[in-house]
Amino acid sequence: MDFPTFVGARKVAPDVTTFAGFFPIGPLGILPANSHFIHARDPILVDTNGVAFEDQYLEALSNVIDPADLKWIYISHTDLDHVGNLDKVMALAPNAKVVVPSLGAAKFGLRESFDMSRLVPMDHGQRLDLGDRELVLLKPPTYDAPETTGFFDTRTRVLFSVDSFGALLDAPHEETEAIPEATLRDGMTMWAGIDAPWLGMVDKSRLGGLLNDIQRLDPSTIISGHLPATSGRMIGTVLGNMLGSLSEDRFQHPDRETIEGLFAQPAVA
Ligand SMILES: [Fe+2]
Ligand SMILES: [Fe+2]
User: Fold this and answer.
1) Considering 139, 184, 254, 269, which has the largest number of Cβ atoms within 10 A of its Cβ?
2) Ligand 1 centroid to residue 17 C-alpha, Å
3) Which residue stretches of the chain have pLDDT < 70?
């Protein structure tokens, strides 16, 4: 794969449709790049994917829901792979309010022209009522922007982990179960080291405790920005990969060669 590639929308879990794309990251592999839609009574779009997918993404979105019926747009953090199509979606969805972490709202305030009146700042610990369920906002165990906030769906037990549990892959896999075991383990370790380069410095027992908290939460599915949907029977493997890398000190700050690899890719098709 030489160019960012959007593969389309697919139902991946109860009440969840994922809009899946992939970014080639030079020699490092292929990074899944997902946005999601929750089929709640008050429908909510979760992140807006990268601008490289704009036309195909907006068309796929319109096939899943008339954007005018969207009640909410959930923004996990302000990275461009998550807000790339936000302005376009906001224009197509005039009835939708934008839920965003407070620090993310402050960052949007630095933009030259942005309709701040549509923002609803909410942070981890708060609950968003969607009529037939609540989203309990929470901090994922790893992240690359301080505002990052994911959620747990009280009706389906689906966990949205944002950048956490992402992986650099060997091919555009659409299911975590289809990824070879070693590819998943090594790809998760590499992605975590790039996305959260402070991981090698953290207290292992504290981070291990956060990962165990997720196990205890017993999600039915984990949806991530950067991994295909992970169903219940694979969640132990995914958490085990993180715990293994933690205990073996495999999380490393990427070296210069690795960073240069990030920029050795074509930006647009
Ligand atoms: Fe990010
Ligand atoms: Fe991301």
Assistant:
1) 184
2) 20
3) 261-269
226 Cα: distance to centroid of ligand 1 (angstroms): 9
pLDDT in tens, 237-256: 999 999 999 999 998 777 78
DSSP secondary structure code for residue 19 in this structure: E
Residue 16 in tokens = 């969840």
Q: What's the confidence (pLDDT) of residue 265?
A: 58
Domain CATH for 31: 3.60.15.10
Residue 176 tokens, joined: 């975590």
> Separation of 82 CA from ligand 2 center, angstroms?
6
> What is the number of domains present in the chain?
1
Q: Which ligand is nearest to the CA of 226?
A: 2
Looking at the CA of 77, which ligand is closest?
A: 1
Residue 185 is encoded by which pair of tokens?
Answer: 């383990």
Amino acid 98: pLDDT: 98
Count the Cβ atoms, other than its own, within 10 Å of residue 157: 15
**136 is written with which tokens?**
């309990």
Kindly report the pTM of this predicted structure: 0.95
Give the whole-angstrom CA distance, residue 94 versus residue 88.
Answer: 10
Q: Give the number of residues written for the chain.
A: 269
Q: Are the beta carbons of 35 and 58 closer than 8 angstroms? A: no
Q: Residue 268 falls within a domain, yes or no? A: no
